[in-house]
Amino acid sequence: MTKRFKILIVDDVPKNIQVIANLLGDEEYDISYATNGQQALGQIDESRFDLVLLDIMMPGMDGYDVCRQIKNRQPENEIPIIFITAKTDEESLIEAFEAGGQDYITKPFNAAELIARVKTHLKLKAFEDSQQIVIDNALAELKVLNKEIIETQKEVIFTMGSIGETRSKETGLHVKRVAEYSRLLACMSGLNEVEADVIAMASPMHDIGKVGIPDAILNKKGRLTEDEFEVMKTHAVIGYDMLKHSDRPLMRTAAIIALEHHEKWDGTGYPEAASGNDIHIYGRITALADVFDALGSDRCYKKAWDDEKIFELLKNQSGKHFDPLLINVFFENIDQFLQVRFEYKDIF
Start and end of every Response regulatory domain (predicted)? Predict the structure, then answer.
């Protein structure tokens, strides 16, 4: 079915509107009209037109202002505007195009020329609309593909993160809880939603370096010797070295987290003994998320602590192990962290 184009004729002289409408009537267009600028803008707001034929010299709002307001009101829908006017001077012509007009016809006009120009602009509008549909569909497909890529990245990262945890006899839910704790801390400490999502996606890689630690040390029951602990500490650098070569924001974030999540606010952590704000916020966030979850979980070398004991340690370590601001954020929103722990609790 052939589309019927909608044309709006704007002129303060009804006879001029009738002349143009009669000329175009045989072309099977849907014709609407307005006798002033306010009427024209009202119809533009209510209907979707394919072309506007616009007089310049009208009382109140002239054609230039009408044109500008149409362009401002519907920037996403570029309606072609043809000025039809008795003004023949060059200044008027220039102002018409500067206002956003696509064409300029002077009165008295040639009927065949008017019809030809209308057809040309409608063909161009139809082509632009069809191309916009193609572009919109392509963008929609790209959004779907991008979402699938992001979901795939998340699955790969969670899987890789779980590898390190599985080798140390921890559950895969540990990395999910750490991810959600990290997201909460990031948002609540002032980072934007996009950055919080990246941290949440990257945090499961915090212990990926454990793949390079011998099982005898990784799964030892009881306290590590001093030499064994030195070996264990290398997992931070091992993880960083695995991840640092990528230019992707997600992998760069994961590399920072792997390297710095064992640093401490007072400078007694590892591997670089960084302190305070010299520790990247990603490392500070993941450090708190990881320790909170580790203390509340069974490990090969310990049983889970009760909440009272965990909270006491976290408060005591504010300004020592942990960023005091993050500790404040944590306790101010403790119910949300406990809800995450409940949703992703270990099932044995």
Answer: 6-122
CATH number of 168-343: 1.10.3210.10
Q: Is the pTM of this model over 0.85?
A: no
6-135 carries CATH number 3.40.50.2300: yes
Q: CA-to-CA distance for 141 and 123, rounded, in angstroms?
A: 27
Any idea which residues carry the catalytic annotation?
Answer: 210
Per-domain boundaries in the chain: 6-135, 168-343
DSSP line for 140-172: HHHHHHHHHHHHHHHHHHHHHHHHHHHHTT--T
Q: Could you give the strand order of the β-sheet that contains 51-54, starting from the edge strand earlier in sequence? A: 30-34, 6-10, 51-54, 81-85, 103-106
